[in-house]
Design goal:
single chain, mainly alpha, 80% helix
């Protein structure tokens, strides 16, 4: 009985800690997306959560550690969603449309300053983000291009490595306010334009029919 009581007490204590950490991560992510990372202080987060800053620091030593865990959680979620979409996709073109749906969910609520703030003020965390881009995202896009060629939806003469790198850079290009000064209000419009430019440039006539099919499906559901 004593052993069971101790185990149950320990379990509930652990659950409470995890619940608090989850609340901190969710609220921090929400605030970073809304205002950018630099503009949000630990004081802001504690106030929004209704907890003391002392309590907040019991879970995270400093803002950099908190930012690191928020980004790690986002990247893991992104990875899992990409893998699920890859399995669910009917073909390579469909996979690109599913990926865009995920981007729309992520970027429509994201302050474009997040990427800049991450690179300038949290370089170690930004390094993890770059690693994700250059390894996982690179492999996902490359795999999609190779699949599309086999399915005869993409042109067989495309340079897979070059276009994989081009696509990765084009996804994050709209976050550069020097190139797109109105990116805060037009981020997804810019992403849509760049996606159309990319996909229409690589598809065959068969692939164009698939593009039209999935665009028509989205028009009907709106």
């Amino acid at each position: 009985m004593i052993g069971n009581y101790c185990y149950e007490k320990s379990f509930h204590s652990f659950a409470a800690v995890m619940e608090t950490k989850e609340r901190i991560l969710v609220k921090s992510h929400e605030l970073f997306n809304r205002y950018g990372i630099r503009s949000v202080s630990m004081d802001d987060i504690s106030v929004q959560l209704g907890m003391s800053k002392k309590t907040l620091y019991q879970f995270y030593a400093d803002k950099d550690e908190l930012v690191g865990e928020v980004i790690a959680t986002v990247l893991e979620s992104n990875k899992n969603r990409c893998l699920c979409d890859k399995k669910a996709a009917e073909n390579a073109v469909h996979e690109i449309f599913l990926a865009y749906d995920m981007m729309q969910e992520m970027f429509s609520k994201m302050n474009p300053a997040v990427i800049f703030d991450l690179e300038k003020y949290h370089p170690a965390v930004y390094g993890k983000f770059e690693e994700h881009r250059n390894s996982f995202l690179y492999q996902m896009i490359r795999s999609n291009l190779e699949k599309g060629i086999k399915e005869e939806l993409y042109r067989p003469d495309i340079d897979v490595d070059v276009l994989t790198r081009f696509r990765i850079e084009s996804v994050f290009l709209p976050f550069d306010s020097d190139i797109f000064p109105n990116n805060r209000t037009h981020l997804m419009h810019i992403e849509q334009q760049l996606l159309d430019h990319f996909i229409y440039g690589i598809v065959t006539a068969k692939g164009q029919k698939m593009i039209q099919k999935y665009k028509n499906q989205r028009t009907k559901t709106k």
